TrEMBL record:
Domain of life: Bacteria
The Rieske domain, residue ranges: 30-133
Record organism: Sphingomonas tagetis
SUPFAM superfamilies noted in UniProt: ISP domain
Signal peptide range in chain numbering: none
Key words of the record: 2Fe-2S, Iron, Iron-sulfur, Metal-binding, Oxidoreductase
Cell membrane as UniProt keyword: no
MF (Gene Ontology): 2 iron, 2 sulfur cluster binding; metal ion binding; oxidoreductase activity
Record's protein name: Rieske 2Fe-2S domain-containing protein
InterPro entries in the cross-refs: Cholesterol_7-desaturase, Rieske_2Fe-2S, Rieske_2Fe-2S_sf
Length: 336
């Protein structure tokens, strides 16, 4: 499904582009894969990222590790019956064990460990109760965070947003919400005023706005949103006079559709949990309003207008943004 035309933001005429035919794999970004609470010591999880599969586990040292999921011996999925032994993960089929660096640490049959017996090990971060994996050989940017978060002053909640159906679009489509001001007004009843966009570098941009939430919430909303990669947002703002920070990010899966995770932070004072409840419900409502539209779009041609300038700029950045497949990452291990 190639987009044969994409409007030029300056004059509304068509320009080249294939935004809906980006090829296999996924953009090289930080992706949320699980809640920290779902991976205690000794736990093993399997997660799909685009066309590949990742095994995530927590060793006895409490450290989260993530690797390509299939044993190099005979291709068993390490997340299905695999066990944590110390800080290694052991294959259920013939008990090959893998550890730091993705290297095979032990073969019970006594054979010499082949040099090619090595999995791809992903960069991993854990913060605010979420586990993140960078889908690429080396992180292109640092994972977004809030440096001024203070456990004595703030309360954080991380969760997966529950969608009403499988979402069949790439993560960057969710990110367009930040730039698609007309859609926020038309579909969600959110009136945006005083919006500004600033490109920070190749992997980050900043957008600020003031908004009237209408029936979605009480009071005005002031937001300063940073976009990281093509799939993740970091916001610092206020709603109804109360601090509201959040991080939202999506992860693609060919089998299960795109999933969305969030961390929402507010001040640790009376009414904090109720505020977080309302915010989680509001974001779920907005995403589920988008879902049937995104799943039923005819993705073959765009005609963007001058008023879509910010949206068009983001789509062009998506076209240029680096992508990689799991097979390419696995091959890079053999080449090292």
């Amino acid at each position: 499904m190639a987009a044969r035309a994409m409007a030029d933001p300056a004059d509304g005429t068509s320009g080249g582009g294939s935004i809906f035919n980006l090829g296999p794999g996924a953009h090289e970004c930080w992706y949320p894969v699980a809640l920290s609470a779902d991976v205690p010591k000794g736990k093993v999880l399997g997660r799909d990222i685009a066309d590949g599969r990742v095994v995530v586990y927590r060793g006895e040292d409490g450290v989260i590790r993530a690797m390509s999921a299939y044993c190099k011996h005979m291709g068993a999925d390490l997340s299905v019956g695999g066990e944590v032994v110390g800080n290694n993960i052991r294959c259920p089929f013939h008990h090959w064990s893998y550890g730091d660096g993705g290297e095979c640490k032990h073969i019970p049959a006594g054979d010499e460990i082949p040099k090619r017996a090595k999995l791809f090990e992903f960069a991993v971060r854990e913060q605010f109760g979420l586990i993140w994996v960078f889908f690429g050989k080396t992180p292109l940017y640092e994972l977004q965070t809030f440096e001024d978060f203070d456990e004595t002053k703030h309360v954080a909640r991380s969760f997966e947003v529950q969608l009403n159906d499988k979402l069949n679009c790439e993560p960057w489509m969710f990110t367009t919400n930040v730039y698609d001001i007309a859609h926020l007004r038309s579909l969600h009843g959110i009136n945006i005023v005083h919006s500004e966009v600033e490109e920070i570098d190749r992997y980050r941009s900043r957008m600020s706005w003031d908004a009237d939430l209408g029936e979605k919430g009480s009071g005005g909303l002031r937001m300063e949103i940073y976009v990281y990669g093509v799939n993740s947002l970091r916001n610092k703002g206020e709603q109804a006079g109360r601090l509201k920070w959040y991080i939202g990010a999506s992860i693609p899966s060919a089998r299960h559709g795109t999933k969305f995770f969030m961390t929402i932070i507010t001040t640790n004072e009376e009414g904090a949990e109720e505020f977080l409840d309302r915010q989680a419900a509001m974001h779920a409502q907005i995403m589920n309003e988008d879902l049937p539209v995104l799943n039923n779009m005819r993705l073959d041609e765009l005609l963007l207008l001058p008023s879509d300038r910010a949206l068009t700029r983001f789509m062009r950045s998506v076209l240029k943004y680096p992508r990689v497949t799991m097979k390419e990452l696995e091959r890079s291990v053999r080449m090292d």
